Amino acid sequence: MSKALLLIDIQKEYFKNGALELVNPVAASENAQKLLEHFRKENNTVIHVQHISPEGVPFFIPGTEGVEIHENVKPLAGEKVITKQFPNSFRGTDLLEYLQSKNITELVIAGMMTHMCIDAGTRAAFDFGFECAVIGDACATRDLQINGQNVKAADVHNAFLAALEFSYSKILTTADYLRS
Fold first, then answer.
1. Distance (Å, whole) CA 102 – CA 94
2. What's the predicted TM-score (pTM) here?
3. Is position 84 annotated as part of the catalytic site?
4. How confident is the model at residue 1, as a pLDDT?
5. What is the rounded distance in angstroms from the CA atom of residue 2 to the CA atom of residue 140?
6. Active site residue 170
């Protein structure tokens, strides 16, 4: 079984002073960094996904600092970087073809935002036949609102991970994954 690390949207826009600041993005990025170091040491495939917004969207604007991948997980020369414009990392990108070309069957997924791009990418990966493991403490999200009610980031995060674990993915901590 060939595996790859899929780091989704760990970009400066989600950190302090970014247009879409998340809750605890630094801790999530530090766990993603541990995964990245492990995959590099093991010579396994690493794929960075970078969201770039179409014109007129007020965040992830090409050429701005916010669109840059965070220094904790900066790509090395030779590591695949896929740019996307939709929550699903497969939509409108060459991600599926790239994974197939590398005979990847298992994806380890981390990144930003749990309720949006992690959810969409994981569900799509499962539908394409990949075995998925989402590393929950290497992901982050934000508080949301619905019908005038506030939903805390921790509740959003846990609800989406619980939904993914039901049939789409294993949900692990960084420590548990690195021990396996």
1. 12
2. 0.97
3. yes
4. 67
5. 26
6. no
